[in-house]
Amino acid sequence: MPISNDKELKAALAALTDTERRQVGTLLVQQVFDLSGDARIKGALELARRADAGNAELAVAAAGVNTARVESFTQCGRDTDWTAQAAHFVARAAQECVRPVVDLGTAWEAAMQARMARICQTLAAGEGTNNTEAEAQYRALEAFLQAKGRAS
Amino acid sequence: MSASLEKGVRVLKEMIDAPIASYLNSCVHCGICAEACLFYTETGDPKYTPIHKLEPMRRLYEQEYTLLGRLARMVGLTKPVTDAELAEWQELVYNSCTLCGRCSVVCPVGNDIVYMVRKMREGMSAAGHAPDGLKGAVTRTVKIGSPMGVKLPAVKAQMKHVEADYGIQIPLDQEGAEYLVMLSSMEIINFPEYLGAIAKIMRHAGKTWTLCSEAFEATNAGMQIGNSDLARVIVKRIVDGAEKLKVKTVISPECGHAYTALRWEGANLIGRPFTFKVQHIVEVLEELRLAGLLKTEGMETDRLTFHDPCQLARRGGVIQPQRNLMAMIAKDFHEMPDAGFMNWCCGGGGGASAIEEGEELRLEAFKRKKSQLDAVKPHRLVTACANCRIVLEEGLEHYQMNLPVVGLTETIAEHIPDPVGND
Question: pTM of the full predicted structure?
């Protein structure tokens, strides 16, 4: 069954194991990674996709992602560069994926931050609210479930 | 004398009013204000003594408005204020002053040094000696209506995102709503969760609220740079929006200077009383709590502390409400030393965080906050100002302190139960 809205997305995420939630969250962040390009985030996402990622490794990756996140804040009074701000939200999304403990909200939060990254990109392009990231996330989750041999 | 210096000196002279004259005459040179300023305490450099930051203004006062000073000027015994001097003072008046007000409250003769710094900034700004970062913010405010260049499509994009994330409609331009919710640029750009939290809390409390397409931005760059005319324009936009929508209360966001500009100075800036009430979001949450309309569930079990934004606590007098709110959700809450009225600034208020060349000094000053935090060793730091939040994050990152910083409004919202039947 295809996923066509956020209610179905949430239901599908709820049915996953914690490891799968981390992997799905990572998958959704990787879809917007081109908006960042930060090597620390790239490495963290590669780690988070692995089912055997250990807590010590995750903690190191999380520290790098946090630095990327803090560095990319738009500070008060500065001119907003929406392209750079997109990279900030990619970092925020990635941060969800390298938390030591995964729960129901992990993949959802990653999805929401990834959508914000895409929104920033559309704002930079002057398009505003034209954001199709949600659709892309539904398709990605469907593909993930299919690869696991499970219907969504 | 260059045209800009002439203008700056003229504006500075105009700024010297009765309070400033009495403050300058009252100063007993005790230096207590130095110990209250984190830029002095953390660097030990006497040039950061708050009253010293006003030296060009003091000399101008003496030369123009005192008998001895005038006589001295006539016989050439005074040192005129120069362009080079004002250029040198830029660092003291802007980079190393966050308008936190700590110096004002420790002054034994009651001098409001912040009041004087702000007047000094008016002259500095007129003389062309405001930092480029703040000048840029002002230019954007004049051209676009927002110091960070935020336009309505960005707000609408965020509204749409929050609606999807929280499953709650975000009202826009709803005439007759009880509350008009203002946002700071920072919340629009960096913290969409603030708007989501507001939506969740208002639904829970059964209150009507709205955003305004013509006045969504509360940040007041005019106040930060020292330009009352611009500060007035920004406040007037909000007043027009609030009156057009006939709201009862305007909610100032988690932004310190927006609150001071609108709540404490707004009516004076536009020259008439408001037809609505102005409250900081923390005050609104407290009011809802007292009315029994804010029912949270569950408690945070990790060790929490609260950073009081200067404009909210010291300058605005809002100290207990945030603690009452924390008590609703925090089992293990600890106060930092000097918390509340005498809390130390994050180091980035008053426009300081917009000044790129001030970053090194800001991080040096952050050592004060670090020592406050080291005394408590919290697991998370809660605050109620988006600017504080980012300045804190930068300081924590610089000093390798692994400490998440969260906003009070969204922390409260996380404890609001979802309505029955809501997915």
Answer: 0.94
CATH number at residue B208: 3.40.50.1860
Q: Is B422 a member of any domain?
A: no
The domain tally of chain B equals 3
Sheet holding B405-407, edge to edge: B330-333, B300-307, B380-383, B405-407
Cβ A79–B160 below 8 Å, yes or no?
no
What are the tens digits of pLDDT across the range B34-58? 999 999 999 999 999 999 999 999 9
Q: Which residues of B touch A7 (CB under 8 A)?
A: 423
Tell me, yes or no, whether B421 lies in a domain.
Answer: no
Quote the CA–CA distance of B365 and B383 in Å, as a whole number.
19
User: Is residue B93 pLDDT above 60, yes or no?
Assistant: yes
Name the nearest CA neighbour of B348 among B292, B401, B396: B396
A115 to B164: CB separation less than 8 angstroms, yes or no:
yes
Domain that holds residue B338: 295-413
| Bridge partners, residue A65, by sequence | none
Of B157, B190, B393, which is closest to A129 when you measure between CB atoms? B157
**Distances from the Cα of B140 to the Cαs of A78, A84, A88, B133, B185, in angstroms?**
10, 18, 22, 11, 12
Contacts of B390 in chain A (CB under 8 A): 73, 75-76
pLDDT of residue A21: 95
Task: Report how far apart, in Å, the C-alpha atoms of B299 and of each of B205, B321, B411 are.
Answer: 20, 18, 11
**List of residues 6+ apart from B251 with CB closer than 8 A:** B179, B180, B181, B182, B198, B209, B279, B280, B281, B284
CA dist., res. B162 & res. B154, Å (int): 12
Distance of alpha carbon A134 from alpha carbon B112, whole angstroms: 53
Task: Give the separation between CA A63 and CA A90, rounded to whole angstroms.
Answer: 15
- Residues B380 and B348 both lie in one domain: yes
**Does ipTM come in above 0.95?**
no
Question: Could you tell me whether strands B179-181 and B249-252 are parallel, antiparallel, or unpaired per DSSP bridges?
Answer: parallel
Work out the burial of residue B72: count CB atoms within 10 Å of its CB; fewer than 13 is exposed, 13-18 middle, 19 or more buried.
middle
- Identify any residues that bridge with B407 across adjacent strands, giving them in sequence order: B383
The predicted-structure confidence for A56-105, as pLDDT tens digits, reads as follows 999 999 999 999 999 999 988 889 999 999 999 999 999 999 999 999 89
CB B21 within 8 A of CB B65: yes
Quick one: average pLDDT of B11-23?
Answer: 95
B7: Cα separation from own chain's centroid: 28
Nearest residue to A18 (alpha-carbon basis) of A101, A88, A92, A81: A101
CB–CB of A134 and B402 under 8 A? no
Among the candidates B289, B312, B347, a domain finishes at: B289
Q: Which of A79, A88, A131 sits opposite B136 (nearest CB)?
A: A79
Position A22 pLDDT exceeds 60 = yes
